[in-house]
Amino acid sequence: MEIQSNFISLAPVQPGKPGTSHSSLPLQIGQLLNAKVLATLESNRLLLEINGRRLLAATDINARRGQTLTLEVLQTEPTPRLKTVDTTHATRIITQHATRTLLPQQVPLDQALAALKSLYQQPQTLSALPPAIRLPLAALLKAIPKRESLANPAALPALLSESGIFHEAMLAQSGNTTSHSPPHDLKAHLLRLSAAIKAAIANTRPQSFSQPPSAQAKPEPTPLPAIDDAASLLPQMEKDTASALARLVLDQLASLPKNESSSPGWHFEIPYFHGDTLERLRLAIAQESPQEKPGNPDETAWSVILELAPEYLGKIRIKITTQGERIHTYFWSEKASTRQLFEKHFDHLQSQLQQAGLDPKVLQTAKTVTPPQPPTSPNPRGLINVTT
Fold this sequence. Notes:
It is a single chain. The chain is of the alpha+beta class. The chain folds into 3 domains: 2-85, CATH 2.40.50; 91-205 and 224-254, no CATH class; 288-365, no CATH class. 34% of the residues lie in helices and 24% in strands. The chain contains 12 helices and 13 strands. The protein has helices at 88-102, 109-120, 123-128, 131-143, 147-150, 156-161, 167-174, 186-204, 213-216, 228-254, 336-344, 346-355; strands at 2-4, 7-9, 32-41, 45-50, 53-58, 68-75, 81-85, 265-274, 277-287, 301-308, 316-323, 326-333, 359-365. Strands 1-2-7-6-3-4-5 form a 7-stranded antiparallel β-sheet, with no helix packed on it. A hairpin with a 2-residue loop joins strand 11 (316-323) and strand 12. Helix 2 (109-120) crosses helix 4 (131-143) and helix 2 packs antiparallel against helix 10 (228-254). The protein is flat, with a radius of gyration of 27 Å.
C-alpha cells in the first residue's frame, strides 16, 4: 500500500504470500474500511491491518501504533485506491445536534425519578395503571440503589456498569437487541417503561372513523380503567421518563472521546435512596493530561470528581487525583461552614487512606470560588451550559 498525502494504493506486505494480497478484499467504490496501524516503519511507511489482511502504506500522515484509520475506497481496479476520511467533524456535528435536542428535555435523574415514585406511592393512581406500566415502573424503582451501596467499594463497580452509560456497549458485546436489554441497567429500565407508557397512550386514542368496516369489526384493544386522573397522568409520566433518558444520553455523549488522541473519560449520574428521599451522585472519571499531572509525568494519573448536594451542607465537589499510590484530594463547597467541617476531619480521612494503602500527599479545601470542573461536556459553543 502506498499513501501520498491522504491517498492510498494497496500493496501486500510480501508479494505472493498467502493472506497478504489485496485481491481477497471485497472492495466497492464508496465503501468505508477501518485500518488498524500495527506498526510505524522507516521511510514513512506503515504496517496496516484491513479485514484481517496485512498491507503496507507509504504515507506523509502522522499515525501511531494502535490507531484506527477510516478509509474510503475511490478505485478498485487495477490497483485499489483509497483515501483517509476524517470522521471527527461528522461525529461533532451529530453530537451537537443531539445535544441541542436533549438539553431542553433533560432534568436531573433524582427529580425525574422522584416524580415517577410519587405516582407509584399513590394507591389509587397505582391501581388505575395497567399492569404493563406498573411492572416496569416497580422494577425501575427497585433497581435504584440505597446510599449504603455507594459507600461500599465492592458494590460501586457494579453501580457504575449498570448506570446506563454502557447500555449499547453491553448490547453489542452480548449480541442482544433492545428487546433483550441487560436486566439491571438503568437505561434498559427507562426504555422498557417508556415503551409501556407509549403503548398505553396509543390504546387510549379513539379509533378513526375512516377505517373500513372490516377493521371496525375487529376487537379493540383493552382501554385503560375509566379513571380520568390515571389517563391524564400518562403524558406526564411519558415526559418524566423522556427527561430522565435525555439526561442519561447527555452523559453518554459527554463520555465519547473527542478525538483519537483525547484522554479517556466518563460521566455518570447515579440516583440513590437516602431513606425514602431520592438523591443523586454526579461522578466524572478522567485520565489527566500531562500538564495536569501532579507527580511523575511518566506515571498515568487519573482524576475523579464527585458532586453531591447533601441536605444542610449545600453543593459539594471533591476532586481526587491518584498517581501510583499517591493521592491528592481537594474539597470545594459553596458554604464556609462545610469547608470547615471537612478540615476538621482531615486527620481521620488521612488515616483511612493510609489504611487502604494510599499515600495522601495533599488533603485540602479549595480556596477558589470556582469549583473543580469535570471533563469537558459535549455542549457546543453558543449553547447554555446547564448545571443543576
